[in-house]
Amino acid sequence: MATTAPPAAVSQAGPSTPPPEPRRPRRRWPVGQIVLTLLLIGFALLFLYPLVWLVAASLKPSGQVFDNALIPHTWRFDNYVEVWDQLPLLHWIFNSVAIAFLAAALVSVSSSVVAFGFAYFRFPGRSVLFGLVLATMMLPASVTMIPTYLIWKQTGLLGTWVPLFGANLFGSAFYIFLQRQFFLGLPRELFEAARIDGSSYWQMFWRIAMPLSIPSFIIVFLFEFQAAWNNFQGALIYLNAGSVEGFTAPLGVAYAMTKYSPTAGGQADYQYVMVASLLVTLPMLLLFSFGQRYFIEGVATQGRKG
User: Fold this and answer.
1) Which residues contact 249 (CB under 8 A, 6 or more apart)?
2) Model pTM score
3) Residue 21: which pLDDT band, with cuts at 50, 70 and 90?
4) Of 85, 206, 239, 277, which sits with the fewest C-beta atoms within 10 Å of its C-beta?
5) What's the CA gap between 106 and 113, in Å, rounded?
6) What are the structural domain ranges in the chain?
7) Per-residue pLDDT, 106
8) 254 contacts 209 by C-beta, under 8 angstroms
């Protein structure tokens, strides 16, 4: 009689269970990193304090502007309405935007052309000439102030916008250095291939160098826009003889300081000065918030070797 094999023994232990996952070690913050983070937060609050103080002062009545309270005891939102009726703020902001845009556009293009020449062309004395260009950065602005003023006086352009952006047509030593660093990082083979295909130097510049160096162009544009916007000295020299509506934003704030300063038997209305200062500062805050990446890249670029 044939015997059948006994059925396979069924495991009494049940289905197999996966091994427990190993515990992840808790992330421990080094003491040094904690201290550094706290220091950075403290410095950030320290640098934000003037801006918060300015906002608070712009919302106070005249007698409480300098009480150093970050939360006004009496809120006065009418300051923002009244200052628009008393000062030509819109004209000042428009003038500053137009002048800053023209100055930034001119110096960006002119500096790019000179920087491309120093980066691409190989000619005797190139390093010496580039060193002379960089040496002009060591000249204080006070040394060239009077000769520059006399030049613009001879041209008959005093009291116009032209002296505030016209000199940018000849480039800037700092921006030439900055963009030259970018151009030196571009593969030279691209330009050699373009020359073989019959491209001119201008075509190489506009069709190869400029599209590949858009970040450097934006950096220079933002830097010069900020510098032209804050150019109080230039506006004071060349526009002070004009009408109040023709002032730039920094010069307009200085005018507001004079307009609302204490008079004999009167009280200073510095709350309007604070409102004007805040309104002409906001465009630069927006510019920095949108272009922060390019500002940081511009600072890092200065350390590149050319």
Assistant:
1) 92, 93, 95, 96, 229, 280
2) 0.79
3) low
4) 85
5) 11
6) 31-76, 83-301
7) 95
8) no
